[in-house]
Amino acid sequence: FLAKGKELIGCYPDMGDNEVDENLLETRDLIFYKNNENARETHLEMEEGSYAVFYPHDVHIYLELHLLNH
């Protein structure tokens, strides 16, 4: 849920080909992956009051709004 402002989120399904950069599952329930050039990433433009649901097999990351080319 985005309470205020705008946010861009990149996401794609984990197909098992992601290389782990940092594994923080034990302490923060979080994994960072190295950039995956083969990922078929989708961009979600979030606005105030919108929400997104991610499942365990969904890789997702916050992106800057200016990174999205229209």
From TrEMBL:
Cross-referenced InterPro entries: NanQ/TabA/YiaL, NanQ/TabA/YiaL_sf
Protein known as: YiaL
Annotated organism of origin: human gut metagenome
Secretion signal span: none
Lineage: unclassified sequences, metagenomes, organismal metagenomes
